[in-house]
Amino acid sequence: MSKPEIEPQLGPEPTELVIDDIVVGDGAEARPGSNVEVHYVGVTFDGEEFDSSWGRGESIEFPLNGLVRGWQEGIPGMKVGGRRQLICPPDWAYGPAGSGHFLSGKTLIFVIDLLSTR
Asked: How many CA atoms lie within 13 A of 47 on its CB side?
């Protein structure tokens, strides 16, 4: 797969986590608390990119337990080979405005390609 393009969203920002499978994988299934290797792009709700493993030219691996709530709850059930979009309101991302992170208070959109899980 190649780097996904994420369009700015129309309409109001959601208040709950939104999960959309773009491609359903057929490999091993990610479980809560597992380690995952992914390629991803993150943009704000209006479409401004703030992070991308694609931009660094390499995938990244991390334990789900160390990530934002939207990833902890949005990746389990995903299968290797899949591509999933997560729309994470502030409570599912970096918290309300003033929480100390430069993205706090923002609704974030991630497109995640699951490469492996263990």
From this structure: 7
Residue 49 in contact with residue 40, Cβ under 8 Å? Answer: no
pTM of the predicted model, to two decimals?
0.95
* pLDDT tens per residue, range 9-22: 889 999 999 999 99
Residue 101 belongs to a domain: yes
Q: Which residues contact 63 (CB under 8 A, 6 or more apart)?
A: 33, 34, 35
| DSSP assignments along 43-70, one per residue | EETTS-EEEEHHHHTS-EEEEGGGS-HH
Q: What is the CATH number of the domain that holds 31?
A: 3.10.50.40
Domain that holds residue 82: 18-117
